[in-house]
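SEQUENCE, STRUCTURE TOKENS:
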Amino acid sequence: HVQLVESGGASLQAGGSLRLSCEVSGRSVNDNCLGWFRQAPGREREAVATIYTGDDITDYADSVKGRFTISQDGFKNTVYLEMDSLLPEDTAIYYCAASRPLWMYGGKEPEFAYWGQGTQVTVS
């Protein structure tokens, strides 16, 4: 049974930095796609950053490029989101998610099958 547990959410002032962590348990994620998503009140959930764990290829939403960095620790089965120069519009619940092993998607874009419970980030 795959579980994802986020941590690191906080309330802070604009311009500050924060690092979110997401520990994955239940299986190794060394050939998966892991992602961070966020949902602000009254808005749809949006993808923030993704990483392919097999080759460290990353992708970011335009709104966070240059400010956020996604990374992984394969030994700890953990994915991180380093957030710098935070803005009030970054306020949201942040979720991490994981795909199934990439081979299961037959070369197609992976879907996120497993989700964490979310962690609140508030920037004022």
About this structure: The two ends are 37 Å apart (CA to CA). The mean pLDDT is 95. The chain is about 0% helix and 50% strand. The first strand starts at residue 3 and ends at 7.
